Amino acid sequence: MGLITQILTFPFAPVRGAGWVMDQVILAAEREYYDPAPVQRELRELVQELAEGRIDEAEFDRREDELLDHLEWLEARSRELDARS
After folding, report:
1. Could you tell me the pTM of the whole model?
2. Whole-angstrom distance, CA of residue 46 vs CA of residue 61
3. d(Cα 17, Cα 12) in Å, to the nearest integer?
């Protein structure tokens, strides 16, 4: 930017700064929301529950399918976000 442009747009600097902060907050929230680590942790806990006999095979299969579907969705969404960036 030229000096004249910077001087003329200086009053809008707080708006641009607030917009940047908002973008960063949204990106951080999206990273946290689409993080596969909690789903992977739930899968490990599910295997542990089955091994300890707290759930039966049918319950394990049902919950495992749900978690794997969710994990697949997260990975697809992550690829979309990477392509958008």
Report:
1. 0.65
2. 10
3. 9
